[in-house]
Amino acid sequence: MASLDAREFTVGAAAGFALAMCAAYAYQQRERKRDTARKPIGRRRSLTSDQSYLQGQRSDARPHHTAAVKAWQRAKDDVLSQFRAKYPAGFGSELVLLSQIKVDNVFLLPVPHLSDYHEGADLPNRMGIGCANKEELQQSYNKLMGDQDVIIHDIVRKPNADPVTTAYLRAGPRDVTHFNPCKVRAAIVTCGGLCPGLNNVIQGIVRALISLYGAEKVYGVRGGYQGFSDPNFPPVELTLANVVGLQHKGGTMIGTGRGSFDLDKTMGFLKQNRISQLYVVGGDGTHRAANKIAEEARRLKLNIAVCGIPKTIDNDIDLIDRAFGFNTAVEEAQAAIESAQTEARCNLPNGIGIVKLMGRHSGFIAVHATMCSGDVDLCLVPEVPVVMDGPKGCLPHLERVLDRKGFAVIVVAEGAGEEILGRAVEVDKGGNRKLPELGKWLKDEIGTFFDKRGKPTTVKYIDPSYMIRSVPANASDAIYTALLAQNAVHGAMAGYTAFSVGMANNRLVYIPISSLVKNSPRIMDPMGRTWERVLSVTGQPNTAVKIDSTSAAISTRTII
Ligand SMILES: Nc1ncnc2c1ncn2[C@@H]1O[C@H](COP(=O)(O)OP(=O)(O)O)[C@@H](O)[C@H]1O
Ligand SMILES: O=P(O)(O)OC[C@H]1O[C@](O)(COP(=O)(O)O)[C@@H](O)[C@@H]1O
């Protein structure tokens, strides 16, 4: 399943050659056009050897075209005209060959498949396949995905970097289903903290299972993993009727919870209810548990597909561009920041507004909300040490801001400042450390600091964190969740297991859960450009220090 076959490779190589040829030719053409008035510019001094060579072929530069060069030129002309015919958009004429950027080999991150240990039904897949007695309601999918449809992971390339890349399996319907869709009994569970879009995911899965595939039964397991074992929370049946309008409501209609994961009881529930597809919606903790369920199902040779849908407003799940709900959270945070700004601006003299935003290990919401707002003067996140005094201190920075404009706005991510407040030891039911409240502490510190200087301040502390995560998904997240839900179902129906569905480089992909959780939770790179952009917005002193990348997963993904 994982390897690319020889034919594909040859086609790929031919396409690569064609691209290189037409790029070379295009470059030469452009050079000709520019020829008469061209002055040397800095960038051109570091021409690649291929580019220098091409330049050398210009008739005016070296008037010694040989027959071989002319033949080469003709071959390139052919390739270019073929390329232009295929891509009439016209950008072919702009291409330049970058000879130091190479991708020779693509390695797929393979997703486990139930057919590795269990025979599948292998039925031809059609939209509405479940409507067996209503053939007219069925139709072919416009695009079916195969095991060689991939999305390249490492899209950022540098000269002379390793000419290899990893790739993900592209999500989507497959030509055959591993399960007989009409016999599928599925269960959905939502775990961890709330997140905008949970209800959309539930609705999307139910609709895809029933409308696209005609599944027999869909259960909602209530209250997170405890719903597998707690008789006080019996499962609910999910139907097309009872998910109507769900997308307009925040929260999760089946409830959520932390803790109480019991592998044996969960397996017992799955067997007793003859569940063949399990959809778990949650963060890295939830996915770790999901992986254990998939491993146990494999050990017991149970024909159960386990599919994860990454959820967390903290956006700290590795590999994917962003988790659903994050975009809504950033948008929703704007109202709180705006209120803080209004309070700060109107409470004279020296009004200061502090907004606390969620982000246990990572400050993604805080930094993106800061960049989006443009009103924030100080942004504190877990990845960057909080320094109170001295030339890089946040208190002297605030004083400068107050002197300049009379008020200030601060955004604090909940996990920030552990290095000054001490590392918490207490944990919640899910094993997550309870964090010290930097925002509240900061409020007092600011008061004391400015009192000592004889500058009265009014500090307002706003904590909108639970309001932010309980709202319905915005348009962007609503679309994202719809895509996630449908593709989760396509993947499970195809027989993939122990996988999660997510967006990578703006395309939906299937990722093995083991890879997804390996480096989660991820954090923002304090030496990266996101933080640099925050600094440029807030004007605060940079207190970032390099983080050992072997001890923390530093995000390299585009976030929004
Ligand atoms: N390593 C693990 N193994 C098994 N279950 C886990 C593990 N980590 C977390 N869980 C369970 O997953 C659920 C959600 O975990 P939590 O960390 O609270 O949220 P999230 O999934 O959003 O990170 C909880 O029920 C918790 O008990
Ligand atoms: O108070 P709760 O419900 O435990 O949730 C608080 C936590 O939930 C989050 O919003 C998201 O957490 P998870 O993604 O781990 O569920 C964190 O930022 C925050 O620390």
Written account of the structure:
Helix 8 crosses helix 9. Strands 1, 3, 4, 6, 7, 8, 9, 10, 15 and 16 form a ten-stranded mixed sheet that branches. The chain is an alpha/beta fold and 560 residues long. One of its GO terms (cellular component) is cytoplasm. This is Rhodanese domain-containing protein. Keywords: ATP-binding, Glycolysis, Kinase, Magnesium, Metal-binding, Nucleotide-binding, Transferase.
Keywords, separated by commas or semicolons:
560 residues, alpha/beta, binds 1,6-di-O-phosphono-beta-D-fructofuranose, 16 helices, metal-binding, ATP_PFK, disordered N terminus, binds adenosine-5'-diphosphate, 37% helix
Short description:
With 560 residues, the chain is an alpha/beta fold. It has helices at residues 6-34, 42-45, 49-56, 67-86, 198-212, 263-272, 284-299, 326-346, 364-373, 394-405, 418-421, 438-452, 465-469, 475-494, 513-518, 529-538; strands at residues 105-108, 123-124, 150-152, 164-170, 176-177, 185-190, 217-221, 236-237, 277-282, 305-310, 351-357, 378-380, 407-413, 458-462, 499-504, 507-512, 522-523, 553-554. The chain is built from 16 helices and 18 strands.
